[in-house]
Amino acid sequence: MTITTLSSRELNQDVSRAKKAASLGPVFITDRGRPAHVLLTFEDYQKLTRQKRDIAEALAVPGVEDLDFDAPRADIKAHPADLT
Known about the structure:
Shape: elongated
Largest sheet: 3 strands, mixed
Helix content: 25-40%
Strand order of the largest sheet: 1-2-3
CATH architecture of the domain at 4-52: 3-Layer(aba) Sandwich
Radius of gyration: 24 Å
Low-confidence stretches: none
CATH superfamily of the domain at 4-52: YefM-like domain
Order of helices and strands: EHHEEHH
Distance between the termini: 62 Å
CATH class of the domain at 4-52: Alpha Beta
Strand content: 15-25%
Oligomer: single chain
Mean pLDDT: 86
């Protein structure tokens, strides 16, 4: 995988170069020398967004704390084991 870095000006002047570079790996686009965006092929984007997340990552999503959710209490009863 090749990582390419382009300034916003370079991107605007030669979009086809950026698209070709994205087929080889991510293209970092900078604004005033700082990374601001990443250009990926759609296939690479789909690979990234289809990753499985564990419950901790899912609950860490911004805004999840604002959801109104009252989970019902579980009513778990013990049953004697049948050892016959």
